[in-house]
Design brief:
The protein is of the alpha/beta class. Helix content is about 45%, strand content about 15%. It contains 16 helices and 16 strands. The strands form five sheets. Strands 5-6-7-9-8 form a five-stranded antiparallel sheet. A four-stranded parallel sheet has the order 4-3-10-11, with helices on both faces. Strands 13-12-14 form a three-stranded mixed sheet. Strand 15 and strand 16 form a beta hairpin. The structure holds adenosine monophosphate and zinc ion. The site of zinc ion has 3 residues, from loops.
């Protein structure tokens, strides 16, 4: 079945099918966090949009390469304006009251990166294929800046290297911010480098031999601008042209507009076909802010308020990514109840599955229809409220017909787990996962805290493959076989089940 995956494209202002450069293969880049403090639930609303896109794509049987970065340098306090003046967020965090406990900015960055990975896993987000750090790609950024200089898209002043917006006539095509006057207005409060040729020009490299994080470059000591990191790492891992790029709505301008300029000035080819942006989360009807006392990190909810991690996840995806979203504690309480019911439904259907029960075919049919309806809702511009409503409906059916359940009921739950990630048990598509115990005991101090026991992972993968085969989802089953093979594990199917052994090394 050839199904379209329709998403709103900020570039064309239309809901349109993702059109892939290569059939059934998604090259996807999503902007990650700046690791100067703990990630908050707003950040995760945006990361979860990317996660749901990835899950849906995988269920469609697409091969996916998913890259999401960690910004650990170059994101200035004034990056919301175009001029990229201001102070590096990491450096400022080190001087804050919280920052005093870190020896230096590298230490701070490591700590918050590990905390991010723990939050990522506890909320059951899929592992990215690559999670590159800006500071590990300075060389690539310098090389691209050199190329932009040599093809006339950039110039040097005594304070840095700037992208010349006038050299790129398409600047503004994503955000609609074409008018020079409007851009000037946006930067009026910012210290402007008098040597800049045009107020719209933005920094690719800042010269600064006093900065806490600095590298040697052809322009002396300094550090890269924030925008250059993302286009360079996206192109390094996904190629010059990619299918999809995502982030929160604040990134449309200037960050993504600048990424397009840099990437397209470099190659002369369109950078990303599709751009998806998540509307900002509000809390109890207000902008989330520390000043208003309504600012929540993931760990505030899980550690301080004892909320089940998957309930946080469910609450955060309960609104469609493009609509205004009001996070409330009443939604969170509802989500906790729902997550318990998902768990209960998992347990009863697993039991039916393990006994090999066929179950009532009418119930099986109804649940298969619901699973398809969940997928259809996600394919329709990630309509999560409709998808969750279908999932809850299925759970009601399951818990109301406990004696009529069979293998297909369990497949329904696995389907919900794959697509929405709100069922506790790991499934084929789940991320690495960490236990709540690990998380509460400070998994953030050690990002290897996830249960990486290779034998567990192999057994889990084999189990997931068996479930996929029973559901006649052979493309998924084959993918797992490939994954195992990449881990040097050979599997053999025989009448009593599947056995595995390690391939000899050479
Ligand atoms: P930052 O750490 O500021 O670079 O943000 C990381 C990601 O979170 C970006 O994609 C932002 O657009 C997104 N983001 C920040 N605040 C919110 C919010 N309140 N709601 C949704 N997304 C957000
Ligand atoms: Zn970015």
């Amino acid at each position: 079945m050839n199904q379209e995956f329709r998403l709103y494209n900020t570039l064309t202002s239309k809901v349109e099918p993702l059109s892939l450069i290569e059939p059934d293969r998604l090259r996807f880049y999503s902007c990650g966090p700046t690791v100067y403090s703990y990630a908050h639930i707003g950040n995760f609303r945006s990361f979860l949009t990317a996660d749901l896109i990835l899950r849906t794509a995988r269920v469609l049987g697409w091969k996916t390469t998913y890259v999401t970065n960690i910004t650990d340098v170059g994101h200035l306090t004034n990056d919301d304006a175009i001029d990229t003046s201001g102070e590096d967020r990491m450096a400022r965090a080190l001087r804050s009251a919280e920052g005093k406990r870190f020896a230096n900015v590298w230490d701070l960055s490591r700590y918050y990166s590990s905390a991010l990975l723990a939050d990522w896993r506890i909320l059951n987000l899929l592992e990215p294929d690559v999670q590159p750090r800006a500071t590990e790609h300075i060389r690539e950024q310098i090389q691209v800046i050199e190329q932009l200089l040599s093809n006339g898209a950039a110039y040097q002043t005594s304070s840095g290297v700037y992208f010349s917006v006038a050299s790129f006539p398409n600047y503004g095509k994503l955000s609609g911010n074409y008018a020079a006057e409007a851009l000037e207005l946006a930067v009026r409060d910012v210290v402007v480098d008098p040597e800049k040729k045009d107020p719209r020009d933005f920094a690719l490299w800042k010269k600064d031999d006093q900065h806490l994080m600095q590298w040697h470059s052809p322009w002396g000591w300094g550090f890269p601008g924030w925008h250059i990191e993302c286009s360079v790492m996206a192109q390094a891992y996904l190629g010059n042209e990619i299918d999809l790029h995502a982030g929160g709505e604040d990134l449309i301008f200037p960050h993504h507009e600048c990424e397009i300029a840099q990437a397209e000035a470099l190659t002369g080819k369109p950078f990303s076909r599709h751009w998806v942006h998540t509307r900002f989360l509000q809390v109890e009807g207000k902008k989330m802010s520390k000043r208003l006392g309504n600012f929540y990190t993931v760990r505030d909810l899980i550690q301080q308020r004892n909320v089940a991690p998957l309930a946080v996840r469910l609450a955060l995806i309960s609104g469609q990514y493009r609509k205004p979203f009001n996070f409330t504690f009443s939604t969170l309480r509802d989500s906790e109840r729902h997550v318990k019911r998902f768990q209960e439904a998992f347990d009863v259907t697993k039991d039916a599955h393990d006994r090999g029960t066929e179950g009532d075919p009418n119930i099986g049919d109804a649940l298969t229809d619901k699973r398809n309806a969940i997928l259809s809702a996600l394919l329709d511009d990630l309509n999560t409220p409709a998808a969750i409503a279908q999932a809850l409906d299925g759970i009601r059916t399951i818990l109301g017909h406990r004696d009529a359940l069979g293998i297909r009921a369990h497949q329904f739950i696995i389907g919900v787990s794959d697509l929405l990630g709100i069922v506790p048990q790991t499934s084929l598509l789940s991320g690495k996962g960490i236990t709540v115990g690990h998380y509460l005991n400070g998994a953030d101090k050690d990002d290897s805290a996830a249960d990486d026991s290779p034998t567990n992972t192999i057994e889990e993968l084999i189990e997931s493959r068996a479930v996929a085969r029973e559901a006649r989802d052979f493309s998924t089953a084959d993918k797992i076989r490939d994954q195992l093979s990449a881990m040097n594990i050979e599997i053999k199917d025989n009448p009593n089940g599947t056995t595995w052994e390690r391939k000899s090394d050479i």
